[in-house]
Amino acid sequence: MNAGVNRQRLGLLGGTFNPIHLGHVQAARIVKDRCRLDRVLFIPSFIPPHKEDQDVASAEHRFNMVRLAVAGEPDFEASAVEIEARGTSYSIHTLDRIKDRYPEAEVFFILGIDAFVEIATWKDHEKVLDRCSFIVISRPGHRLDEARKVLGGRLEDRISYLNEDEKPGDSPLSAGPAILLLQIDALDIASSDIRRRLHRGSSIAGLAADPVREYIKENGLYMTNQEILPAEIKLCVDAAENKKAEDILVIDLRGISSFTDYFIVMHGNSNKQNQAIFEGLDQTLKQQEIRPLSVEGKRHAEWILMDYGSFIIHIFSPTARAYYALEKLWGDGIKHAF
Questions:
Q1: 184 FRET partner, CA 20 to 30 A, in 225, 242, 304, 324?
Q2: d(Cα 82, Cα 190) in Å, to the nearest integer?
Q3: pTM over cut 0.90
């Protein structure tokens, strides 16, 4: 079947883009090259149908950030098709509008495996699946093979892999509405992590393009009214998050404690992870010439205490954290959860 050989191959990458980050752009580059797409449209939603998060920037802001992020990419374009339509952004309506604007194009939805396994929740998902092909890309925490179980396995005969050693021209994409599984090595970045960092005044360098970062700053996006924490506290939280510490809590003890200003409380899921969290924090702080006055408990790692004078870090096991209950013991302190 060669009818689509000379047609423009158009990729659609939709999402909330709240905000768009370097991982989005890098993934689009990989998909475009591997799947021989001529153009990729980045389509911010107006009202995302599956998002309950209240911390969503306006459609105008999100579109402007997308436009800035792809400005240096000649084959990428920010599309306002969903924003112009207003209302809830459903893929079936977006696809209809795209086909009206690009009637000769061969259209491919680009999405992560985490989104594809939820396709049964989409409005008129069967019609969407029949009207275009899909490029399903890998995401941390999910196996691409999960796609074979979607809709009870009814899509099995349409699914194929594009392997690392396979040339893009070998892909069966032009043969009809296929579902192509593509393993990629994109940056593991989440918009929710960017928002959390911005909430506490931390840097997002290396996570979003410079023009996007400037736009966020100029427009005060994703900021809160809570007091910005000291730089060394933010540094600790960032280092703990990098080691996957759970339920990180900063307790502001100023005015109610005579021996420190802040507690930073967290836990790991094993003593081995607690050791890794400790080592990550210790190394990060030492790089900034911040050294502890004392360290206790690192041998058994049920409760590691790192005392820096103005702040104290507590790394617990879940059991020890529940037993000592510092959050309740110091219940009068102002709490910042991450």
A1: 242
A2: 22
A3: no
| Chain Cα centroid distance, residue 316 | 27
Phi and psi angles of residue 312, each rounded to the nearest 5 degrees, phi first: -130, 130
Written as six digits, the tokens of 239 are 């280092």
Superfamily of domain covering 226-337:
Beta Polymerase, domain 2 (3.30.460.10)
CATH number of the domain at 9-182, please?
3.40.50.620
Note the pLDDT of residue 167.
Answer: 46
What are the residue ranges spanned by the domains of the chain? 9-182, 226-337
Sheet harboring 311-316: ordered strands across? Answer: 294-296, 303-307, 311-316, 262-267, 246-252, 334-337
Q: What is the pLDDT of residues 286-322, one digit of tens each?
A: 999 999 999 999 999 999 999 999 999 999 999 999 9
Question: Cβ-count burial of 225 within 10 angstroms (0-12 exposed, 13-18 middle, 19+ buried)?
Answer: exposed
Per-residue model confidence as pLDDT tens digits over 226-285: 556 888 998 999 999 999 999 999 999 998 899 999 999 999 999 999 999 999 999 999
Backbone angles phi, psi at 34, to 5 degrees: -70, -30
Is there a contact between 24 and 17 (Cβ–Cβ < 8 Å)? yes
Task: Quickly list DSSP for 20-83.
Answer: --HHHHHHHHHHHHHTT-SEEEEEE-SB-TT---S----HHHHHHHHHHHTTT-TTEEE--HHH
Q: How many CA atoms within 13 Å lie on the side-chain side of 139?
A: 16
Write out residues in the chain with pLDDT < 70, as ranges: 1-6, 48-54, 163-176, 224-228
Helix ranges, 269-308 (H): 271-287
The closest of 105, 118, 94 to 42, measured between CA atoms, is 94
